[in-house]
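User: structure tokens for this one?
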Amino acid sequence: MNVLVLNSGSSSQKSCLYQIEGSLPEQPPACAWEGKIEWADGKAEYSIKNAHGGSQKGQAATSDRGEGIEGLLRSLWSGGTQVVSGPSDVDVVGHRVVHGGPHYFEPAVVTAEVRSAIERASAFAPLHSRSELQGMEIVAKLLGTVKQVAVFDTGFHRTMALSASTYPGPYEWFEQGIRRYGFHGINHQYCAERAPQLLGRLDDEKLNSFKVVSCHLGNGCSLAAIRDGHSVDTTMGFTPLEGLMMGTRSGSVDPGIVTYLMRQKKLSGEQLDDMLNKKSGLLGISGISSDMREILAATKNGAEPSKQMRAKLALDIYVHRLQSGIGAMGAVLGGLDALVFTAGVGENSPEVRAAVCENLGFLGVRLDQEKNSRLPLGKDVDQDISAKDAGVRVLMIHAQEDWMIARACWNLTQS
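Assistant:
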């Protein structure tokens, strides 16, 4: 079965094709084909490769998002990265949908009704929803009546209790669908499954009380408190803006700041949205970049003193908020068995992992510094990097959103 996955971002498009033969494999297989396109400053940079060694990268001839995605998908069946003979060889297409609104949590075949629900939920995540819906339109245009499946990023957090998902505002908010939905659920769910597997705890009688805090640290960042494989709490809320400091997003701030800026500085809703989502976080504090690699480089000796100071402040805030959030999640769970680092920063920054774990000894967290600093090779990305006698296992787990989406597609086709 050929399962195509589209993971649409506000300024990027990732896609991959899984070829699943027979039964569903226990471990995520490699993609037979994968492509990515990123838009910035009116330009579109793309990279495509397949499992046979074919590859291409460069700048797309168009900055139009729709044309760029069409060109990306056509490379599945044409050119040096071809892996199928034509569009009809694709059996099912899965989409990462950031927000399913108050009614959609489980993976669903895309129908007119499901599309309408995604459109209604677009007020919660307008940039992502617009990209996701466009992806569905392009697939229908290129692949015809192929089955399409929506997999919701909010779905994993549906198990949170009302005490965790309800805001302490007027009860009318809850009745209007204003509640804490949580995000990054597709990858948090994978980490919830992978952590006990990695530790050999699948047959443990105590697995029903296995407690994990999953740290998804990329350009967007969130924590999830997980017990028995189910989400108990998370840091993102009604939108992906709540919670931790992120690349360009502020995370949680005093709502009074917003009303102050509206009254005193006469800022509009659009200006505030732009400020909090695109001009804050690591970028806003450092004035350098939203990329943690550049922040870390700027903290080193040799950087301009003013830049070094602001980069260090950005890093310190980032770590402080992570430590605070992990402590809170541990309190909600009543203890901790495993702490997971995942996604771009979580997997690739030993400096961040070490800094975050430094003050968490009271929870039983202790890193093996050699394992933490060692770069993972090949398939050995998922690792236990904690000290042997640590009370809490610290794990590094490769994000597998695309595989989780493909797996959901496969499961729906079997029912």
